[in-house]
Amino acid sequence: MVRAELDKQPADVRRMFDAVAKRYDVTNDVLSLGQDRRWRHEVIKAVDPKPGELVLDLAAGTGTSSQPFADRGASVVPCDFSLGMLKVGKSAKPHLPFTAGDGTKLPFADDTFDAVTISFGLRNIVDPAAGLREMLRVTRPGGRLVVCEFSHPTWGPFRTVYVEYLMKALPPVARAVSSSPDAYVYLAESIRAWPDQQGLADLVAKAGWQQPQWRNLSGGIVALHRATA
């Protein structure tokens, strides 16, 4: 299993997500205590898709995060580099145009999308800075970026409890519900190693996005970063 503190090998990460695809949505719901539904709702509000707009949902997995954009009348393209995830998603949502793609080499032309969003996937791109630059390339001038990612709880005592949950409680819970529980050891480590809110905002700005800002969700367990092209 690839370790979060080492260089992420795309083939290893892809195999990991292929392995968890079958029960991915159920596992996320259990491990987040149902909070993932609220987080997805906040992403939709932040993107604020309009009918007729074209939205790229990167690291879309099985398309659970993509369907609400279609429900709002936008045209959404769910994109992921895990063929296992795409297969599960296409079976459940055949009407969505699932597309295979690497976050560092997106298969889209310049200035294509009105908005680009990625939820809980940026930290799994082998080079997150390159991924952010690619997202900017495919976004139209004035378009929006919304990144929903795990972050650092803002209250010290809670942060300690949270890290303990990630490293001790999450793996046994994952063993009970996931189709590939060992993958969640990597995921827990990748969350712990990820930059804090300001660190990610700096990364977004360095990639060329304008006016990055963030809002904490669930006490900073998750942060919603927004910027414009």
Outline of this structure?
The chain is of the alpha/beta class. It is built from nine helices and seven strands; from the N terminus they run αααβαβαββαβαααββ.
Give a description of the structure.
The chain has a 7-stranded mixed beta sheet with strand order 3-2-1-4-5-7-6, with helices on both faces. The protein is an alpha/beta fold and 229 residues long. Strand 6 (210-217) and strand 7 (222-228) form a beta hairpin. Residues 1-7 have low confidence and may be disordered. The protein has 9 helices and 7 strands; from the N terminus they run H-H-H-E-H-E-H-E-E-H-E-H-H-H-E-E. The radius of gyration is 16 Å and the shape is globular.
* Low-pLDDT ranges: 1-7
Give the helix level as a range of percent: 40-55%
Order of secondary-structure elements = HHHEHEHEEHEHHHEE
Shape from CA axes? globular
The largest β sheet comes out as:
7 strands, mixed
